[in-house]
Amino acid sequence: MDFAETLLRLAFLLLLGLGVLLALLTFILGWGLTHPPRIAAGTAAGRGWYLDPADAGFEFREWTLDTRDGVRLPVWDVANPDQPNGPVVILSHCWGGSRCESLQRLAFVFAPASRVIIWDMRGHGEAGSGICQLGTAEIDDLIMLMDRIGTGRPFVLYGYSMGAGVSICAAANDAASGRVAGVIADGPYRWTREPVHALLTANGLPSFPVLNIVHRVLCVLIHGLRDSERAQFAAKLKCPLLVLHGADDPVCPLNSALEVAEAAPESEFVIIPAGGHLNLHQADAQRYHTTVDDFIRRCALRAGAGAPGASQGTTTA
């Protein structure tokens, strides 16, 4: 065997090894994105969170939403007897979150609402079989959830991170019904790959070409992923959009969230100076609460759902 042949064989083995490594990284990332860690009662207890609305001092009932493809999604339904004519607020969590996590935000939206609905999206929390579809099938699930509730009261959709995009897209797809009075998007991103790229970079992992390959594969496997860009949905909204974003968000770019807000026909863009990602309600709790409460009340009044006593002094930046 001459030297040139040896080099060719070594090059072949090197390329084969790189190919196997790339395939392995692609599989691991793709699997991880569609199978996020589940936050259920045990995890919540370990973090010192409320375990259910009663633990937080709210009366509630629990029921299950059965999707068209047979996935069972658990729901907490929290009624507010002091505001029977208010809108119904639906809380949609982030990727890797759950209704246990959303519960920690309940106090920010409860006062102006007649009911607050907190649910586990597919592949999360205590939801049944089914994988996370990165904010695509979850859009139809949220619309089905509104159909199931069907109270005649207007809805305000509140979501954070992935849940923010799901809320925007659901409101856009359901715009003809006129039942969504407003959307609150906390820490949204425009493109699905943006938060994934940020997390890979933060952990010292290569995003290219693995992320590109994974995204192309998932676009084939997950219907609608290619078309889930959030700004194009925001442009179709028929209701006000409130976007809240942290000035120091390391996961979802500030400019990306601004582009989503600017695409909407009617929007407010609020920057929390000390905010990062998923912590805006903690970084400036008073401002966050006032802004969200005031927005829900204004949406309710606009939709003819009485929610008196609106907070004053909301500021935007």
Description:
With 317 residues, this protein is an alpha/beta fold. The protein has a single domain (60-302), classed as Rossmann fold (3-Layer(aba) Sandwich). The chain contains twelve helices and eight strands. It has helices at residues 3-34, 41-46, 99-103, 106-109, 137-149, 162-173, 193-202, 210-221, 230-234, 254-263, 280-283, 285-302, and strands spanning 60-66, 72-79, 88-92, 115-119, 155-160, 180-186, 241-246, 267-272. Strands 1-2-4-3-5-6-7-8 form an eight-stranded mixed beta sheet, sandwiched between helices. Helix 1 (3-34) crosses helix 8 and helix 5 (137-149) packs across helix 6. The radius of gyration is 21 Å and the shape is elongated. The relative contact order is 0.12. Mean pLDDT is 91; it is low at 307-317.
